[in-house]
Amino acid sequence: MRGSNSPAPRCVALQGEIGGPIACSVYADRPPPCRELQVGDDKCQRARALHGLHIVL
Ligand code: SF4
Q1: Residue 55: what pLDDT?
Q2: Cα separation values, 43 from 13, 20, 23, Å
Q3: What is the 3-state secondary structure (H, E, C) of the chain?
Q4: 6 CA distance to ligand 1 middle (Å)
Q5: CB of 34 shorter than 6 A to ligand 1
Q6: How sure is the predictor about 8, in pLDDT bands with cuts at 50, 70 and 90?
Q7: Handedness of CA 6, 10, 11, 12 (dihedral sign)
Q8: Contacts of 18 (CB under 8 A, 6+ apart)
Q9: Does residue 4's CB lie within 6 angstroms of at least one atom of ligand 1?
Q10: pTM across the whole model
């Protein structure tokens, strides 16, 4: 999604504040890469680290 490949990734479909309540505004229609990503996988961990969030185990 647009915004996902910036130095501090932020998808335009993401609603809310990172670190607080947050949700995908197009969840039911999200594209394949979003469906493939798993919580805690390498891409998830990289995005979390870029936003200063702890690692998910
Ligand atoms: S799951 Fe939703 S908010 Fe997250 S990257 Fe995909 S479209 Fe954007």
Answers
A1: 81
A2: 17, 20, 18
A3: CCCCCCCCCCCCCEEECCCCCEEECCHHHCCHHHHHCCCCCHHHHHHHHHCCCCCCC
A4: 14
A5: yes
A6: low
A7: negative
A8: 10, 51, 53
A9: yes
A10: 0.74
